[in-house]
Amino acid sequence: MPPPPLLARAVHKRYADTTALDGLDLEIASGTIHALLGPNGAGKSTAVNVFSTLTRHDRGEVLVAGHDVRRQAARVRAEIGLVGQATALDPMLHGRENLVMFGRLHGLANSAARDRAAELLEGFGLADAADRKVSTYSGGMQRRLDIAAALIRRPGLLFLDEPTTGLDPRGRLDVWAAIRRVVEQGTTVLLTTQYLDEADQLADRITVLGAGRVIAEGTAGELKDGLGGDRVIVTVPDATAFARMVDLLDGEPDPDRRQVTVAAGPAGGTHTLMTVVRSLDAAGIRVDDLVLRRPTLDEVFLHLTAPTTGVSR
Question: Measured by CB atoms within 10 angstroms of the end CB, which terminus of the chain is less buried, N or C?
Answer without folding.
Answer: N
